[in-house]
């Protein structure tokens, strides 16, 4: 009898294993990611990569693109409420991420880690980074490291410097002098006073750098020169506070005002959008401007057409009075992937792990990031180089690349190749990227991600930003009493509680001693 | 005294004209600027009137197969949606406009209730999902097929038609459907065209519903695809190698705006003469 029972148990186990394998082999996997190339459609049926994925992971992939911003969050929220979340999806809104954990909509991903050893070693082995997605001791997300960060910096018109016999600025004082020369000494030689020393806008995008309280990323290098970049001051654990409590923050604000008073900045800076700024530097109106390598690449042709001898390059972050310098802060956290509890309960974990492992390196990585070899790219000295094939098709084929990107040197060289001016000169975009990443003393503030947003976060953001704009535009005097009044105003917004919560969260996650 | 009043009248007329011209300029100049920027070639500065004209931005956009497909989807959704909405709206508004409909007040009240209170996004999504309409065009066509506002405007218009016409038709042996088809609808061209335009504009601009209910990018209508193209242009921070264009990014964006608005701008003049009488007559309670 016992023997029979044992035999039955073995048979059942074997059956389950076979069934489990069969289930894994034929799993329908719904994957939703933000579009890697939003200007191109998602791949449809008959997609060659889908066959490769089926062969590698046994998953019948259904891929959906999700729109960025509030529209995407609303869609995820509605799908969650209807218990219809995709099996594997990307999430950018961390408040929504924690909300879905509390609602029990997403599953702990710990069990997947052993099923994808190479990917885990390469991407999920940092306890600090994994701490960003932990809740009650469980890991609820696959937090990728940043595949591309710190690609911004101050660009300068080298041809204008040469024409005016100037050197690239290295200090804040130099910066003002060069900006003044670019504004007043007709650097483009067209006989008109139509240029500005510096063009930046109030912008809080987080593509590669960390948005913080204040005037936004385009002015962080000034706060960096005073030693107070970013929102929080981690250095002094016991006296932890927001940077804007520091006297140096006021000094940095005074420097911005100095630029405004000297009229060396585009006067529309406080109301312009990033697209306006891009338009202006492409048209040759800015001597120095805050830009990313990708933004420069996108506007390069127009810039070249407008400025036949134009030459733009990065400068290192200028040094401030205390010898501080930093272009800004960044977080070493990229794409956040989560698995729905529904998918895990349906036994799709294995297929998900197989897909991700395949996408991590080797042929899977190359297929998802660059497309089909020989068709979408060729290898030139080991670097994938895109072909002249229809760009839309190539972009459609690589819509899933966020599953694979790893930020390796080879990848960045491939993605940021060489831009050629119409007169034959060329500029290596990957060299520009390497320069701005390495020469700007960027400060890792990944810990900011664990700081819970204040209940009135939007009010706090608006109050700080608007007050600073008033100070630097001269609409409000910048003296002891007005600065104190600005700081007192924070109390009315319960800013102290926000700071206390931030300190507690940073301590709990090991970012603050 | 008379001369003074005339002088005053003339001054008043001048100020009204000046005001209207100002309003016209405020409305028109941004449109002119949008068209102008869309025609700006590489290497030119954006101005109100372009120094050189280039159609490269339009050519670039129309080269994208996704955009042409989306254009077709939008035309299909608009035409089908308007036909369906008009059928349902007329079929509801006409009976409600007849005084002898039993329970008319109650039914009107029920319809009005949905105008003031709605369930919200998630219950709506659940209904659409449970009816198995997700990932089908029915989710976009049936959802909001009848607008309460348009329904009430049309009902009021029907109520204003002289009852004697209907009585005469009935004496001649017409039934209710014949009265509607042969008498009421031919007399209601202004309101039909006006409400039809309202529905067409709503369906043409439909953006969030396709995002919510559809997942196949090939099914997406024009506004969604244009948004993706514009997002791609705006988020140039992750641009990869070989990102080339023959038009400035701003020209591409403005060309996208023109392409979206053009069909509705072309339709409007054809029905403009009915528009005023349609909205006014529908709005006056009989």
TrEMBL record, chain A:
Annotated signal peptide: 1-22
Superkingdom of origin: Bacteria
Keyword line: Lipoprotein, Signal
UniProt-recorded name of the protein: Lipoprotein LipO
Species in which this protein is naturally found: Deinococcus aquiradiocola
UniProtKB/TrEMBL annotation, chain B:
One annotated GO biological process: transmembrane transport
Membrane keyword on record: yes
The keyword Iron-sulfur belongs to this UniProt entry's keyword annotation: no
Residues annotated as transmembrane: 16-39, 70-94, 106-126, 138-158, 179-201, 251-271
Membrane association type: Multi-pass membrane protein
Subcellular location: Cell membrane
Domain ABC transmembrane type-1 span(s) in chain numbering: 71-271
Highest rank taxon of the organism: Bacteria
Protein name, as recorded: ABC transporter permease protein YtcP
Species per Swiss-Prot/TrEMBL record: Deinococcus aquiradiocola
Gene: ytcP
């Amino acid at each position: 009898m016992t023997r029979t029972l044992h035999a039955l148990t073995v048979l059942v186990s074997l059956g389950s294993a076979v069934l489990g394998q069969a289930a894994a082999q034929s799993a329908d996997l719904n994957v939703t990611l933000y579009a890697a190339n939003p200007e191109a459609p998602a791949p449809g049926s008959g997609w060659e990569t889908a066959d490769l994925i089926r062969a590698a992971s046994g998953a019948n992939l259904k891929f959906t693109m999700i729109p960025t911003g509030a529209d995407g969050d609303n869609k995820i929220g509605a799908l969650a409420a209807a218990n219809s979340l995709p099996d594997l999806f990307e999430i950018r809104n961390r408040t929504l991420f924690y909300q879905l954990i509390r609602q029990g909509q997403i599953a702990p991903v710990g069990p997947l880690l052993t099923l994808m050893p190479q990917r885990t070693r390469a991407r999920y082995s940092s306890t600090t980074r994994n701490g960003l997605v932990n809740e009650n001791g469980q890991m609820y997300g696959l937090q990728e490291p940043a595949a591309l960060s710190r690609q911004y910096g101050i660009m300068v018109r080298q041809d204008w410097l040469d024409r005016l016999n100037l050197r690239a600025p290295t200090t804040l004082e130099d910066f003002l002098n060069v900006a003044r020369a670019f504004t007043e000494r007709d650097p483009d030689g067209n006989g008109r006073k139509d240029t500005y020393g510096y063009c930046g806008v109030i912008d809080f995008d987080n593509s590669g750098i960390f948005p913080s309280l204040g005037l936004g990323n385009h002015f962080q290098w000034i706060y960096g020169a005073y030693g107070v970049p970013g929102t929080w001051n981690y250095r002094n654990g016991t006296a932890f506070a927001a940077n804007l409590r520091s006297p140096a923050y006021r000094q940095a604000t005074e420097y911005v005002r100095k630029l405004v008073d000297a009229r060396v900045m585009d006067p529309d800076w406080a109301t312009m959008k990033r697209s306006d700024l891009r338009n202006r530097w492409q048209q040759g109106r800015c001597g120095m401007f805050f830009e990313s390598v990708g933004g420069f690449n996108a506007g390069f042709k127009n810039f070249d057409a407008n400025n036949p001898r134009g030459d733009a390059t990065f400068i290192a972050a200028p040094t401030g009075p205390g010898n501080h310098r930093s272009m800004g802060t960044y977080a070493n956290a990229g794409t956040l992937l989560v698995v729905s509890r529904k998918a895990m309960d349906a036994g799709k974990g294995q297929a998900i792990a197989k897909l991700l492992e395949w996408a991590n390196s080797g042929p899977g990585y190359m297929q998802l990031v660059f497309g089909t070899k020989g068709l979408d790219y060729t290898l030139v000295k080991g670097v994938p180089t895109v072909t002249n094939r229809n760009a839309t098709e190539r972009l459609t084929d690589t819509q899933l690349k966020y599953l694979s990107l790893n930020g390796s040197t080879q990848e960045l060289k491939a993605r940021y190749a060489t831009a050629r001016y119409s007169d034959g000169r060329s500029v290596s975009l990957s060299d520009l990227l390497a320069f701005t990443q390495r020469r700007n003393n960027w400060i890792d503030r990944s810990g900011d991600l664990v700081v819970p947003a204040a209940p009135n976060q939007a009010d706090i953001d608006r109050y700080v930003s608007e007050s600073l704009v008033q100070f630097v535009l001269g609409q409000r005097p910048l003296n002891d009493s007005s600065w104190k009044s600005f700081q007192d105003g924070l109390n009315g917004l319960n800013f102290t509680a926000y700071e206390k919560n931030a300190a507690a969260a940073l301590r709990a996650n090991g970012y603050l001693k | 005294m008379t001369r003074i009043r005339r002088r005053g009248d003339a001054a008043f007329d001048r100020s009204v004209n000046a005001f209207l011209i100002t309003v016209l300029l405020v409305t028109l100049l941004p449109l002119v600027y949008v068209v102008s920027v869309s025609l700006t070639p590489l290497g030119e500065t954006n101005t109100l009137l372009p120094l050189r004209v280039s159609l490269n931005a339009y050519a670039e956009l129309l080269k994208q197969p996704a955009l042409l497909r989306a254009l077709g989807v939008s035309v299909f959704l608009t035409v089908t949606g308007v036909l369906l909405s008009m059928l349902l709206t007329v079929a509801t508004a006409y009976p409600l406009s007849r005084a002898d409909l039993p329970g008319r007040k109650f039914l009107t009240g029920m319809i009005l209730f949905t105008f003031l209170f709605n369930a919200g996004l998630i219950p709506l999504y659940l209904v659409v999902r449970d009816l198995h309409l997700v990932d089908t065009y029915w989710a976009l066509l049936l959802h909001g097929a009848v607008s309460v506002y348009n329904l009430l405007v049309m009902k009021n218009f029907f109520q204003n038609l002289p009852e004697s016409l209907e009585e005469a038709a009935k004496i001649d042996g017409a039934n209710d459907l014949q009265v509607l088809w042969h008498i009421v609808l031919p007399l209601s061209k202004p309101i039909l065209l006006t409400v039809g335009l309202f529905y067409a504009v709503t369906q043409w601009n439909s953006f969030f519903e396709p995002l919510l209910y559809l997942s196949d990018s090939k099914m997406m209508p024009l506004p969604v695809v244009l948004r993706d193209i514009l997002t791609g242009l705006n988020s140039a921070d992750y641009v990869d190698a070989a990102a080339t264009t023959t038009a400035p990014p701003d020209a591409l964006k403005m060309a996208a705006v023109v392409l979206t608005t053009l069909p509705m701008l072309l339709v409007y003049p054809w029905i403009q003469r009915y528009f005023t009488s349609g909205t006014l007559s529908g709005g006056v309670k009989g």
